[in-house]
Amino acid sequence: MELFVDSVDLNEIRAATDFGFVEGITTTPTFMHRQGIKDVDGVIVELSKTTNQLHVEALGEDCSSILNEAKRLAALPGLSKTPVFKIPVTNEGLKAAYRLTQQGNKTNIHLVYTLSQAYMAAASGASYICPLVGRLHDQGHDAFALIDQVVNMVDRYSYPAKVMVSSVRHLDHVRMAIRCGAHAITVPWKVLRILAENVLTGRGINDFSIHTKLTTYTVRQVIRPQNPTVNQNATVAEAAIEMTQSRLGAVSVVDEEGRLIGILTDGDLRRMIDRKDLAHEKVAGLMSRNPRSVQDDMLLQDAVHLMRETRVDNLVVVDDRSRPVGMVDVQDLLTDGLID
Question: Which of 20, 96, 255, 326 is most deeply buried (CB count within 10 A of its CB)?
Answer without folding.
Answer: 96
